[in-house]
Amino acid sequence: MHLTSQTVDALVDQLAKLPTIGRKTAARLAAFILKMPREEVVELAKALVDAKDRVKECSICFNVTDNDPCPVCESDRRDRSIVCVVEEPSDVLALERTGDFRGLYHVLGGVISPLDGIGPDELHIRELVARVVGSQGIQDPIQDGAKSETIHSDGQVQIREVILAMNPNVEGDTTSYYVGQILAPFGVSVTRIARGLPIGGDLEFADEATLSRALEGRSGM
Ligand SMILES: [Zn+2]
Q1: What distance in angstroms lies between residue 62's CA and the mean position of ligand 1's atoms?
Q2: How far is the CA of 170 from the centre of ligand 1 (A)?
Q3: Rounded to the nearest whole angstrom, what is the distance from the C-alpha of residue 67 to the centroid of ligand 1?
Q4: How far apart are CA 157 and CA 141, in angstroms?
Q5: How far, in Å, from the CA of 144 to the mean position of ligand 1?
Q6: Cβ(145)–Cβ(90) under 8 Å?
Q7: Residue bearing the bigger pLDDT, 99 or 45
Q8: Judging by beta carbons within 10 Å of its beta carbon (0-12, 13-18, 19+), is residue 152 exposed, middle or buried?
Q9: CB neighbour list of residue 90: distance below 8 Å, 6 or more residues apart
Q10: What angle do CA 89, 90, 92 make, to 5 degrees?
Q11: Band of the pLDDT at 216, cuts 50, 70, 90?
Q12: pLDDT by residue (tens digit) across 104-147?
């Protein structure tokens, strides 16, 4: 005889698949969901399915977005000559929270990790190179030296700096080195955010002040 509900067990199984949720927490969440008003449970289920169905990748920066291109790539108030390279969309959120970065982003979708079978080809590195190369137009002949921004006929601005903001761990270091090497021939300044971040720490969980300082103290590769 089943002492507990198989339906509840199935819910606990699903919840326990989520990161950081053990079976104990999953059971607590399931009990909470059972007590929620039906309409709230429907809203929760709808939000999950909507997120899966509607959210897509920006075709320029690979951040998650409802509309392609994403609001950052679309904005005319961002400095299009600087691109900050991050591992995951959650890192974009962390950097946006600082309010200090006015450039554009490029989300790699992970880091190089041979043990997990993730090589450069599994990440959006090729697309980053294409972005940098694609932005290198013919120098504007009427530039006045001080303000030497290269502007294409289609309004695209030359990328002058690529900031690497990978997490400070072995995979992050490996990925930064690789991306730095691959961008080296293209005449773009490649910098890496300062090590104000705790080694082995996660960008996503760094407080805004630490992240701002790390961004400010970036150095050449
Ligand atoms: Zn974008």
Answers
A1: 6
A2: 27
A3: 9
A4: 15
A5: 31
A6: no
A7: 45
A8: middle
A9: 204
A10: 65
A11: confident
A12: 999 999 999 988 899 999 999 999 999 999 988 644 444 444 44
pTM: 0.75
Neighbours of ion ligand 1 (CB under 5 A): 58, 60-61, 69-70, 73
Helical packing angle, 89-98 and 208-216, nearest 10°: 90
Q: Which two tokens stand for residue 98?
A: 């600082």
12 residue type, one letter? V
Q: Which three-class secondary structure state does DSSP give residue 178?
A: helix
- Number of neighbours of residue 34 by Cβ within 10 angstroms: 12
Is residue 35 within a helix (H) or strand (E), and if so which, with residue range?
Answer: helix 23-35
Taking the centre of ligand 1 as the mean of its atom positions, its distance from the CA of residue 210, in whole angstroms, is 25
Note the pLDDT of residue 146: 47
